[in-house]
């Protein structure tokens, strides 16, 4: 799915990049666990086309995934580049990128220079080392796995009690999502219910967030020191909030808001998403074709495309044609 994979091609440098979120954006946004072998198959196709594969571990890395240190390890793949950030410094501003010597050398070989005002400063190095030491000494990866399984069981228990609102429980380690629905049969997103859950929990001093294209997924991403006692507190608050929201009068009021959202807001969001995809396609086509305007194959493709359209704004982008033209060049 396009939501799971963002491919950027630059013919000027002849470098094609495949950016894959290790298992869940909309994977990350929805906390969707990819099926076994998914990324291995994607990486195989991409690498056969000369694509560089990048795994973004900013949210899922550094032991949060529990049984593995990096989420991409759940898929049995080794990315060409791994990006990491926020948890690397536990609040200290630090980020990192890991790649092979050969790939790093190819970046410099083209005359590119990397510059960072604060790159490699001693304070950042000390913070990063301290985080790694704490994860190891406090056995936080094992804790994330054990607590995560307890969290999953607690959330699934809530789903059994409130099936009219919780459509799914998914995640690994200490990275979970509750799919809040307005209709349990059709799995219609329930953003108004999700927002009400978040606000009611906040009033009870439990901080959650909503995520996803429809903002209907309750995102649960606690600190790695989270334990069973904290899970019990979370489950108790969620149970109290869900009981309140499923009371007949409250439920009917929120359902009316959901129906308004489905009728008036959802179509607008779909339209915005469609426009965004169209703009991304236009930008990709420009990246592919501008450096190749001298190539006769590209001139022919552009001529055929423009002749079938009344104006440039109405042009339908044929990405397969563009990619084929780039390969011919």
Structure characteristics:
329 residues, five-stranded antiparallel β-sheet, alpha+beta, 48% helix
Chain-wise SSE layout:
Blueprint: E1 5-10, E2 15-20, H1 27-30, H2 38-48, E3 51-56, E4 81-84, E5 96-99, H3 101-109, H4 122-137, H5 140-161, E6 166-172, E7 175-183, E8 188-189, H6 191-203, E9 209-211, E10 217-220, H7 228-245, H8 248-289, H9 296-307, H10 319-328
Parallel strand pairs: 2-3, 3-4
Antiparallel strand pairs: 1-2, 4-5, 6-7, 7-8, 7-10, 9-10
Helix pairs in contact: 5-7, 6-7, 8-10
Write up this protein.
- The strands form two sheets. The chain has a five-stranded mixed beta sheet with strand order 1-2-3-4-5. Strands 6, 7, 8, 9 and 10 form a five-stranded antiparallel beta sheet that branches.
- With 329 residues, it is of the alpha+beta class.
- Helix 5 (140-161) runs parallel beside helix 7 and helix 6 (191-203) packs across helix 7 (228-245).
- The protein has ten helices and ten strands.
- The longest helix is centred in the last third of the chain and has 42 residues, at 248-289.
- It is globular, with a radius of gyration of 23 Å.
